Amino acid sequence: MAFAEATPALLPPTVWQRLKKRKLALFGMALIALTIFGALFAPYLTPYEPNDQMFDGLTMQGAPMAPGAQFALGTDLLGRDLLTRILYGARTSLIIGVLANGVALIIGTFIGVTAGYFGGIWGNILMRFTDLMMAFPALLLAICLAAIFQPSLWIVAMVIATVNWVQTARVLYAETASLSQREFIAAERTLGAGNVRILFKHILPHLTPTIIVWGTLGISTTVLLEATLSFLGVGVQPPTPSWGNIIFENQTYFQAAPWLVFFPGVAIVTLALAFNLVGDALRDVLDPTQRGRA
Amino acid sequence: MKKLLTTSALVAAIALPQIAAADAHSDLDPNAKSGGNITVTYKDDVATLDPAIGYDWQNWSMIKSLYDGLMDYEPGTTELRPGLAESYDISEDGKVFTFKLREGVKFHNGRVMTADDVKYSLDRVTNPATQSPGAGFFGSIEGYDAVSSGEATELSGVKVLDEQTVEITLSRPDATFLHVMGLNFASVVAKEAVEAAGADFGKTAMGTGAFKLADWTIGQKLVFEKNQDYWREGLPYLDSVTFEVGQEPIVALLRLQNGEVDVPGDGIPPAKFQEVMGDPEQAARVIEGGQLHTGYITLNVKMAPFDNVDVRKAVNMAINKERITQVINGRAVPATQPLPPSMPGYTEGYEGYPYDPEAAKALLAEAGFSDGFETELFVMNTDPNPRIAQAIQQDLSKIGVKATIQSLAQASVIAAGGEADQAPMIWSGGMAWIADFPDASNFYGPILGCDGAVQGGWNWSWYCNADADAMAVKADSMTDPAMVDERLKMWSDVYMAVMEDAPWVPVFNEQRYTMKSERMGGDDKLYVDPVSIPVNYDYVYVNDVQ
Amino acid sequence: MLAFITKRLIQSCLILLGVSFITFALLYLFPADPVRQIAGRSATPETVANIRAQLGLDQPFIIQYARYLGNLLQGDLGRSYLQKTEVSTLIAARLPASLLLMLGAIVCELILGITMGVVAALRRGTATDNTLMMASFIGVSAPQFVVGLLMLYVFAVQLHWFPIGGYGTFAHLVLPSITLGILGSGWYSRMMRSSMIDVLRQDFIRTARAKGLSRIRVLMRHALPNAVLPIIAMIGIDVGIFMGGIVVVESVFGWPGIGQLAWQAIQRVDIPIIMGVTLVSACAIVIGNLVADIASLFADPRIKVR
Fold first, then answer.
1. ipTM higher than 0.95?
2. Does the UniProt entry include the keyword Cell membrane (chain C) (predicted)?
3. How close, in Å, is residue B409 to chain A by CA atoms?
4. Predicted local confidence at residue B468, as pLDDT
5. Could you give the CA distance from residue B462 to residue A33 in angstroms, rounded to a whole number?
6. How many beta-carbon pairs below 8 A join chains B and C?
7. How far apart are CA B515 and CA B8, in angstroms?
8. Which residue from B200, B203, B251 is facing C166, i.e. has the nearest CB?
């Protein structure tokens, strides 16, 4: 599991021990592992193809089939197996979630740290720019961007990244600014250390816990945003399954076929919840002073 | 459930050079009671009630009830009948129409309507400053070009002979002219009201119609009140109509079942359809009607490989139209040609391209594409169109054509279609053609004619057949009522020629299903009125009036 | 204080200017042509050209933006392309509904969040605490459209407790408010819990108990008011989150607010409306943030103003 491999290098062993003790965190990690498993092994877990519109998938009158023996979670309005689409949809959510969040993290770190470290005019401009981006209603901006560029997996990820880097930038700015004032930084400078060295050897390592926490929590936000964009019809292109666009396509039937909204909905909540639980636990473990703050 | 396919009897209306004087009494329903209010719901807000501008699903029938034009239609049918014009004469060459107006018709503010108002309204709708999407329909009136380019502010071809007489001269014979006079765009408005309201005229109404606008709360509801002085005596039956907007179709139907709503303006949503039809009591109140609608896939003849007619024919044979109508719950009829079955000029018995994937593959191979090819299918991103596109995509994949779906906002698809090199295939759903008026020519010009195959045009298949265009012009100049059959035959030939070239895949003609509440009365065809889409508010009534 | 507010106000104006520029530029880049939508499908090329000239859409970008800005400074948000009505009229007609919804959401999230947080703090470490915290996690993780659809289905369609979407009475307000507020209630319950735990540890609480005051009294009159302060300060921030949420919630519940207006306008590329709603939303967000920061200063000078 990718997460387990990464931790020893980034976190001291004691942190990992403490994390393991928190039951909610374990629960969250288990959910994430389950999702990744489902996404990776989807072709082997179900006999159906996600985009295969089957004649047997609809009743004689053309209505979707309820969950049963043949289709574990039922079928959708085009006669495609819902379980299969949900499993493949996990790929969409994970890929976009991680990708978008990764890019957002990079942008946020770059802007926040640069502004915090160098300060001055540039710092001011960058932070005002951040305020500007914060003033945009994120969803409206995302919808407009998605309408301008013909959506694809990458475009959707970029759009989400564009609206999501702000919080990270602000937090890292505050921390970097405070760190930069500390004496040991001044000491390093007098010793002749260049900016790059200071940044990478002294500042960034201190920021790592925050970056990890925000990185994890951020995936939850990006998963939710991707689902919302797909729900509004401006997410990934059909027939690529995404939990949000499954609900979008089938919501008019939510009375007659509530499983079409319920199961993908549960999937979205579960994945977002998992990352929230892990991120929150990481925050408690890595930096107790942040406890409970929004 | 009663099934009514409206048939055309356009023949009868056009055949008579003069129509007998006002028959305002003959169509009253003996069972009708006067009084009562009904509630109609719509999902989308009403943009405007200005007849020169309104071109939406919601406001089309509302405007019909607030305003009148020179010509009108028999309720629930596509037959023309006189409106504000009591009678009319057509000159020998078919180019001069003299309309005699009814006397004593009053606007909602009490003023009597005269010929000056007619002229004012026509000048206004063709004036570019009004930004009317329907200005182009009046292109055959003399003086239109001058007004449209801004050189003149009045149509030289529209003359007021006296208070009750308007003479309209056309620059060329136009067999569709009387239909154009029955369009909402040709409605008569009161000059003083337009000038008083300025650019906000669309949020008010001042016409001669059966109802007046009593109240409008933006985003929530509109209330129409009976026009006590309406010139058709005995009409309307209802005292008022309340329109509630912002209601999802499912919610509207649930409220109808609860007794809170009388007519769901957006029809019966697919999800409730089976449930409703399974209950005999409710099924009896469901009305099905044909629409003058065709849903089609355009194949861009300027983009390879759709420049090859065999490829286009192969695609036609690959689409399983029955299955696609299943996607919309069977509420459509598979289409074989551009015109819908209820349109005069429809070629009966024409089978079109049968569903035959094997033959399609063979044809593709003959054309040199035995391995298929890749292409893109553009579609509008509101439900159910992405689903239909996915069904089409699957059909195409079975003959080796890999189509990637581009599901975009409506305006983006329209923009892509208007460029010669962007959209190889477009599914027209959500933007599909519904006839503006019940005449065969309405399906040709902008979407299949050479004039439409320009940048920014609506002929998304970029199809341009000069011979067919010539036939179309000839057909529309056949204004002689005795030549109606010949004209329809010529139009039929035009569309057959189009099908030979197969720039389109006609997929289905949507049927409209709506339901009325228990208390509503009136002939079923009023609820699926092909002209006053969807409901003819002037003629419906309720049964529970004291 | 005054200097702080003045400085922030100036900054806010500049921010709004920036928002207007970026939005205008984005809409300019839309691949769809609004003139085509207005002109309709039977329009001739001359008509289209006429309309384009009338709307000033044939001008270069900078001129168009300058015109827009000029009008904006006079309070004119322009006219909708498709409805011809003034954008300010449309927004003014729908804004009260959205504000009502946000108010309802704030009430919901405060009631839910504070109650859950207090109970969890008092029952710290027990199963109740864990359940409540889990519930708040779920609240933060659920997309609003899922919550909305499920609430509609369960409470309106199946149980008939509430009307199925729509607007008008208090009953109509309940479900959408809860849907919009659940996200915030998740945050607030956790904040409230930790804030409460901190306050309960304070000396003055022990003093109050030692004086013989009842638990309830200590709770309500001494602990709660202090614990709630950080939350009150955060309400302003919610506005930003709501501005995105109302697009979805109003769509699901058929609520006639500006979210629904914006969504319909985007579908039809009715640029003046999109600009107007974005600016109004940005305005609200900026004001909300300012209020939150001022409230933070008053609530607890020790809390850093972000």
1. no
2. yes
3. 7
4. 94
5. 52
6. 134
7. 24
8. B251
DSSP lists the bridge partners of residue B81 as B72
Q: Which of residues 192-221 of B touch C (CB under 8 A)?
A: 199-200, 202-203, 217-220
Considering chain A, what is the average pLDDT of its residues? Answer: 85
pLDDT reported for residue C173:
94
pLDDT of residue B143 exceeding 50, the answer is: yes
Show residues of chain C in contact with A24, CB under 8 Å: 134, 137
CA dihedral C151, C153, C155, C157 (to 10 degrees): 150
Q: Are B518 and B129 in contact (CB under 8 A)?
A: no
Instruction: Tell me the per-residue pLDDT of C204-223, one tens digit each, with 9 for 90 and over.
Output: 888 888 887 777 877 787 78
Residue A82 to residues A64, A230, B161, B447, Cα–Cα distance (Å): 10, 17, 70, 39
List, for residues C233-274, the tens digit of each pLDDT value: 788 888 888 888 899 999 888 889 999 899 888 888 888 999
More confident residue, A11 or C276: C276
Question: pLDDT band for position B128 (50/70/90)?
Answer: confident
Q: What phi and psi, each to the nearest 5 degrees, are found at residue A148? A: -75, -45
Give chain A positions within 8 Å (CB) of B396: none
Contact C97, C54 (CB under 8 A): no
Q: What is the 3-state secondary structure (H, E, C) of chain A?
A: CHHHHHHHHHCCHHHHHHHHHCHHHHHHHHHHHHHHHHHHCHHHHCCCCCCCCCHHHECCCCCECCCCCCCCCCECCCCCEHHHHHHHHHHHHHHHHHHHHHHHHHHHHHHHHHHHHHCHHHHHHHHHHHHHHHHCCHHHHHHHHHHHCCCCHHHHHHHHHHHHCHHHHHHHHHHHHHHHCCHHHHHHHHCCCCHHHHHHHHHHHHHHHHHHHHHHHHHHHHHHHHHHHHHCCCCCCCCCCCHHHHHHHHHHHCCCCCHHHHHHHHHHHHHHHHHHHHHHHHHHHHCHHHCCCC
In the numeric block, which tokens belong to residue B283?
């099924």
C-alpha angle B340-B344-B345 in degrees, rounded to nearest 5: 85
Residue of B nearest to A247 (CA): B383
Return the residue of A nearest to B275 by Cα: A256
In this complex, the residue of A58, A233, A239 whose CB is nearest that of residue B393 is A239
Residues B453, B60, B126, B149, CA torsion sign: negative
pLDDT digits (tens, 9 = 90+) for B456-474: 888 999 999 999 999 999 9
Cα–Cα distance measured from residue B10 to residue B343, given in angstroms and rounded to the nearest whole number: 10
Select from A132, A138, A255 the Cβ nearest to the Cβ of C244.
Answer: A138
The structure tokens listed for C194 are 């930790």
Contact C267 B382 (CB under 8 A): yes
B116 shares contact with chain C (CB less than 8 Å) = no
CA distance B524 to B2: 8
What does DSSP assign to residue B451? G
pLDDT digit string, tens, across residues C123-160: 888 888 889 999 999 999 999 999 998 898 889 888 88
The DSSP output letter for B199 is G
What subunits make at least 3 CB pairs under 8 angstroms with A? Answer: B, C
Q: Does A60 touch chain B (CB under 8 A)?
A: no
Which residues of B, range 381-440, sit inside 8 Å of C by Cβ? 382, 409-412, 414-416, 418, 436
Chain A partners within 8 Å of B274 (Cβ): 61, 63, 256
CB contact under 8 A, C22 and A255: no
**Which of B202, B219, B418 minimises the CB distance to C94?**
B219
Minimal CA separation from C268 to chain B, in Å: 6
Q: Which residues does chain C have within 8 Å of residue A276's beta carbon, measured at their own beta carbons?
A: 137, 140-141
Alpha carbons C209 and C217: distance in angstroms, whole number: 9
Q: What CA–CA distance (Å, rounded) separates A84 from A73?
A: 9
